[in-house]
Design a protein that fits this description.
The complex is a heterodimer. Helix content of chain A is about 65%, strand content about 0%. Chain A is mainly α. In chain A, α1 crosses α6, α2 (about 25-45) packs across α3 and α6 (about 115-125) crosses α8. Chain B is of the alpha+beta class. In chain B, a hairpin with a 4-residue loop joins β2 and β3. Classes of the chains: A mainly alpha, B alpha+beta. At the A-B interface, α1, α2, α5, α6 and α8 of A face α1, α3, α4, α5 and α6 of B.
Chain lengths: ~180, ~280
């Protein structure tokens, strides 16, 4: 049972890693999160019910660990990765608009989003989960998932395409927080 | 106007709750015409629609590199445990007597005149096993571009006759699936490069579910015009490349019974490779 579970976890690692990098906006931090997630999952393997989706369970663990980490950061006064956010701006403060998005650009744009929206973007837009599956992972009503997701996608599109608005000046990056 | 988007009325407001599912292709068919019409007449709605498309395509593709990147050893170890615990089973996968026979085979030139021994990338001496039998951190194609997680998944779920992309410009196509007399499942496969080169390999599934690459051959120009063969079928009239001759010889040595046919193989994959 444990061997089979470990094998399935290995299969899941590339997706889990992508999810973690999308959340953290950083490869190393993403790997730290994946490692912590795997260790947490293995230590609580009795809580996973065979027959249920392993990916949803692992995503939920990763999400909760990351949210805990973000809350701890806020307590310490770290609000946003301004350096990453500023990567969006070109030499003249112009927003970078590229035909092919880079990971850095997407990560920087996502850094502006509240955590709950970042989770939904990662689950639905990047990993391809359905709204319902994302609702199960985040344990949020599906209507709330859809409204938060739509808001997040509009914001991301505006930032990455740079063709709608300059809502937030460069030096006044928003403070990420749970959105309702 | 109604606040309930589910109502079908001509004045139904078209908002994100309809446009986003439409862009994602999950809106109910009976609701699509109203959205289409609204998008056609309202540029602002069209811009929102394009935004939703954008965040489903280009946004996700930016993460393709992460998905295809090799999995760091520390993450694999976090799941599987320390490496030393999984190096030992490999040697016993095929049995020491067979390994000795195999090593002997590669030293004896009359094994097959067609076999160019130097063409075999990886030897089968004990030193090779000690290094490569880890099967996790070591790149398994000679160009070093395959991450093991993709390879593991490809070997685990891809039927013979199919192929699975395991890296940019590189696919794995299982050729044969068979069991050894050590009650171990093994698969012979081809690694097909986008530039027309083809390598081969053989991997066996350890008791912990990890596919361990026991042998791999270097990329050579592909000589086969046809695609991957269905399960159980041989190479047909074409002459296989020397590298594949080597792999065929190794397979013959270790195989017990026939290679699996398509249906039997599908059952084995579905049962997650239960012991033969």
């Amino acid at each position: 049972m444990t061997d089979e579970l470990r094998s399935r976890m290995v299969e899941l690692l590339p997706r889990l890693r992508r999810f973690a990098v999308a959340l953290t906006g950083d490869l190393d931090q993403g790997d730290d999160l994946v490692q912590e997630t795997c260790m947490r999952a293995l230590s609580r393997v009795d809580q996973w019910q065979p027959g249920t989706r392993l990916d949803s369970w692992m995503y939920r663990i990763a999400q909760n660990l990351w949210l805990d980490r973000m809350r701890a950061k806020k307590v310490r006064g770290v609000q946003v990765d301004v350096e990453a956010a500023e990567a969006l701006a070109g030499p003249n403060g112009r927003r970078v608009v590229e035909s092919r998005l880079t990971l850095d650009a997407v990560g920087a744009a996502m850094a502006y989003l509240p955590e709950d929206q970042r989770v939904l973007i990662s689950l639905v837009c990047i990993d391809g989960l359905s709204y319902k599956e994302a609702a199960e992972v985040t344990q949020t009503p599906i209507g709330t998932v859809m409204s938060r997701l739509a808001r997040a996608r509009r914001e991301l599109h505006a930032r990455l395409e740079g063709h709608t608005r300059e809502a937030i000046p460069r030096q006044q990056a928003p403070k990420p927080g749970r959105n309702t | 106007m109604s606040d309930t988007p589910d109502e079908k009325t001509p004045a139904q407001p078209i908002g994100d709750d309809l446009i986003m599912p439409y862009a994602d292709g999950v809106l109910a068919p009976d609701q699509r015409p109203a959205v289409r019409e609204a998008l056609a007449r309202d540029p602002e709605l069209m811009q929102r629609f394009e935004g939703f498309l954008f965040t489903r395509g280009p946004l996700a593709r930016a993460f393709d590199a992460v998905l295809a990147a090799p999995i760091p050893e520390r993450l694999l170890e976090a799941v599987r445990g320390p490496t030393p615990q999984r190096t030992r089973p490999t040697v016993s996968l095929l049995g020491s007597v067979r390994l000795a026979r195999l090593a002997e085979m590669f030293r004896v030139p009359d094994f097959s005149p067609a076999v160019a021994v130097p063409a075999v990338l990886v030897g089968l001496a004990a030193g090779w096993l000690a290094h490569y039998a880890i099967g996790i951190a070591v790149p398994v194609d000679s160009r070093g571009v395959v991450d093991t997680a993709s390879l593991q998944r490809a070997l685990e779920v891809t039927p013979t006759g199919g192929s699975a992309k395991i890296a940019r410009g590189l696919s794995l196509a299982p050729r044969f699936t068979f069991a050894t007399d050590q009650q171990v499942w093994c698969r012979q496969y081809a690694l097909i490069y986008g530039d027309g080169l083809e390598a081969g390999g053989m991997a066996c599934r350890a008791p912990d579910g990890v596919w361990q690459v026991l042998m791999s051959t270097p990329p050579v120009p592909g000589v086969r015009a046809q695609g991957p063969r269905p399960a159980g079928e041989g190479p047909g009239g074409n002459t296989p490349p020397n590298n594949e001759n080597v792999l065929d010889g190794v397979r013959s040595l270790f195989k017990q019974g026939d290679v699996l046919g398509r249906e039997k193989e599908a059952d084995v994959i579905k049962d997650r490779w239960k012991t033969p």
